[in-house]
Amino acid sequence: MWTRLLRIGVWVVYLAGSGFLGVALTWSVYQSARQSVGLPPPPNPEVSRSDLQVCGDSLASLSSELNDHLRAVPISVPAATQDDVWQAWIPTWRARLLALAGRCRLIENTPPEALALRDAYADLNRLQGLYTTHVVQFAREIGKTADETREAITRAQSAVRSAP
User: Fold this and answer.
1) Packing angle of the helix pair 49-72, 115-137 (nearest 10 deg)
2) What is the DSSP string of 22-52?
3) Torsion angle of the four alpha carbons 105, 110, 115, 118, in this order, in degrees rounded to the nearest 10
4) Sequence-ordered list of residues with C-beta below 8 angstroms from that of 85, at least 6 positions apart, any chain
5) Contact 41, 106 (CB under 8 A)
6) In terms of Cα–Cα distance, which of 127, 146, 129 is closest to 138?
């Protein structure tokens, strides 16, 4: 009788502990993902024409900055670590994009005069996700070979220069 109660108690403690760990792990992953993606600021209650102009210019600037960072990836040394460099830079860029979305209400309750900006924001947001995937794939699949190729070329040039 006592053995059975003890066994039931152990199972209850085991299941409660496992459940707690599962919930804690899920919460941790959720918080980490939420932090990396960022949260939009509260939307601007009154969007003016000057806000819309600033948002249009800022979208163009953010797009240019994103493209410049992507272009730098294949020529940066070491190429194999460019995903770390990108992941360190992109949260700041995303925070600026989200602040812009809040300023012009591009995520929800978009004013009719800002619909084109909303579409451009959505496209830029999607492009950033694709670029991030590209950078990670480049660093992991091509980066090591690119670094080895650069080193081989440098060795070859040195050998040619030092040859009699």
Assistant:
1) 10
2) HHHHHHHHHHHHHHHH--PPPPPSS--HHHH
3) 40
4) 76
5) no
6) 146
Nearest to 124 by CA among 101, 91, 103: 101
DSSP character for 39? -
- Angle (nearest 5°) at CA 35 between 135 and 79: 20
Tokens of 87: 């992941």
pLDDT tens, residue by residue, 101-118: 999 999 888 999 999 999
Task: Kindly compute the dihedral angle of the four CA atoms of residues 111, 117, 119, 121, in this order, to the nearest 10 degrees.
Answer: -120
Residue pair 135/82 in contact by the 8 Å Cβ criterion: yes
Residue 103 to residue 100: CA distance in whole angstroms = 5
Asked if 142 and 79 count as a contact pair (C-beta separation under 8 A), the reply is yes
Please count the residues of the chain: 164
The percentage of residues in the chain with a pLDDT greater than 70, rounded to a whole number, is 95
Structure tokens at 16: 């409660």
Q: Return all residues near 74 (Cβ < 8 A) that are at least 6 apart.
A: 138, 146
Q: Look up the pTM and report it.
A: 0.73
DSSP per-residue letters across 62-98? HHHHHHHHHHHTTTSSSGGGHHHHHHHHHHHHHHHHH
